[in-house]
Give the backbone structure.
Amino acid sequence: MKRRLFWDIFFEKALKAAAWVSVLTLAGIFLMLLINSVRAFETISFAQFFSGTAWNPAAYGEATYGIGAMLFSTFLVTLGAMLIAVPLGIGTAAFLSEIASPRVRNILKPAIEMLAAVPSVVIGFLGIVLVAPALAKLFNLPHGLNALNGAILLAVMALPTLISVMEDAIHAVPKSYKEASYALGANRWETLVRVTLPSCTSGILVAIMLGLGRALGETMTVLMATGNAAAMPHGFFDSVRTITATVAIEMGEVPFRTPHYYSLFACALILFLITLLVNVAAERIAAGYRRKGQ
Amino acid sequence: MKRKIIQMLGLALMITATLLVVAILGVVLFDLSSKGAPSISWAFLTQSPKHGMTEGGILPAIFGTTAVTLLSTLLAMPLGIGCAVYLHEYAPDNTFSRLIRASIRNLAGVPSIVYGLFGVAIFVQFFGMGASVLAAGCTLGLLTLPSIITTTEEALRNVPRLTREGALALGATKWETIRTVVLPSAVPGILTGVILALSRGAGETAPILFTGVAFYTRYLPGSVMDEFMALPYHLYILSTQHHAIEQVRPLAYATALTLIGLVFMLNLTAFWVRAKYQHGKD
Amino acid sequence: MRTGLYFSILILLSACTRRNVETITIKGSDTEVNLVLQLAEAYMDSDLDVSVNITGGGSGVGIAGLLNGNTDVANSSRDINPYELTLAAERGVAVVPFVFAADALAIICHPSVPLDSLILKDLGKIFSGEIQNWQQLGGSNAKVSLYGRQSNSGTFMYFRERVLGKDYDPGIKQMNGNAQIIEAVKADPNAIGYIGFGYLTDESGALRDGIKVIKLAKMKGQNAISPLDKAGIKAGLYPLTRPLYQFTNGEPRGKILAFYEFEKSPFGQSIIAKNGYLPASEAGLANNSRQ
């Protein structure tokens, strides 16, 4: 008995240790971002960082560290991606949940999960070799490496998340709602648009937030396909450089512990906080939704 | 009548949306297979690159990806599964543990480049591992840790309480219950989560970018402290920075196809495990 | 069956691994990466106990790697600057340069751009944004479309130092490497960009089609020279010839020294020439003053 007790306590401690190590390491990420960002702001002014639009650490004259253009580029590409992905996602999710037969659903759902599995480099690669030439021909541009290309690719990456979460939300609408609607004489489309979808608005919102978070954090896809011009974009046909791409490009060229090095951590912190905000918002909406449903 | 027309239009819209999404997957697979398959051969998969990457194969990249991904899973699995087991079986349900779970979920959504930065600052620089398989493996392990914890907890949650209580009623200690009853029934779910994490890790580029991947190595890494080649990075370079971009385009396609083949194989394995688990449940 | 699989994997792996291999890590310049790759491949063919790992990314990556202690050799198409030397001194890194070849920076544009030659000053005005429209140089009314490298590139730094004397036009499209610049210029009718002239020719030595090479003159009134004019370059008439560096931490020893010796050998020099680069002896021939 003593031996069994020993192992019982041993493993409880060991598992606790594993939990602590995991949590501390993950907390360490945030801590490290914070510490290095603080070091960055020892030499870079807040004002310039947040309101300056020129990111030019290797400038001829004085180095400037303004994230304005990058922030705008990030939002531009992400917004474009959402504009493309949300309608497609809702349409597909509604189809899967309400219209499709179980057999069709059993083929389509794994197919969509396959799309989710495609690595971001491969999507970026196809953005260079497939989408860019198509865009260039369609809109008569010299090359198709711009914000629109990035938006399309990010939409492709966010769609699987969007579709699966939305489909769950739509599927969870109680049958009684739909049956009541049919009883009142509505047809399938009217029921879908006026009863089913409105009653899972928060679920759809959650899906959009999660898709948004996915798109915001993408690195390789935007790095390869958006042209990487560091200036402020004027439209979707301009080449842009997002925060993630900037960090990925410049990380290799910075000697450790220089202002430029620390500035990249500040960028990463901003990224971290933005995705945190989006995820927390999603969870808030989801929690409110669950409470309401009960 | 108007309502019927609107319904038909609406249906058409939904079908169009779905077809578009499926078409995207179709285009991805078709383009990669048609342009990549011609360059794939046994030689391609088993040789090193030659002549400035314009000829030869990608064996070091396949090996590098496999090695780093395996290492990262080996590191993340005990930590992740242990953490999940502790959180689900031992930790009291208070604000603190809920906060931990929320933090883990949020960390799953953090951009991979942030993990890459962390890897450079901590593993490469602070721990002095330098750019190596080890540093990259640790970084990638961190990346997959949140998702392993979440999926393991999910699998544990699916083990019925009655099963646990039955074992405890028979006199087993908590750990014995976990070891003999809970974990075995949760294994398929855990395994699915681990394989999916593996497949995600194999396709990631940002975390390995500055923690150990190299453009060209003739030989395979001799130890975990060496640099390595990797499939996603190889694809990235072949399509953006190579000196003969057009010439190596077919090789880039073949690399993409190999990578996606590897990832899909892992995913299909995970699905198979999951399907078998569902079947076993019935 | 299983043991057979394990055995075959082991044999496969051992065919590609060398247990007693010494590794040389080389990182840096995109201009030099292909050349150094060819040199390294030839060198490894002759010496089976060494493995040369090469990564590109730009001269900045190489120098940062040297300062951070994670590379043995830094390829750089520019000299190290005073700030980096200070950092090196702080970290106890002794930066030792070695010029193994030379390069001429080529200015390329789309064939429909109405220019054949430029003086250095005008080239600077184009890339700094002072001249925005081809009309100002006698061409059609079209906005100049600029292509260059990113800040991690030695070529980026060298061009800015030598030609501009100030920052680039902010609208310049920053490409990932020389090859991307060529691809972009080929597709954009108003494009102009700069590349290492080793990239002007393809594998067989023929000039790549789809781009026009601009002749350069140092000052107005002088003869404009093309970077492909070997005699002109040798005579020091082309304004953008530059040395290609490799930096090490401390004097090169062991296999690194052997690699350097290989680069200096006739076989190494022939590889350098075959790839379209200049021998190290012609590195200093450009007039280093700006005007």
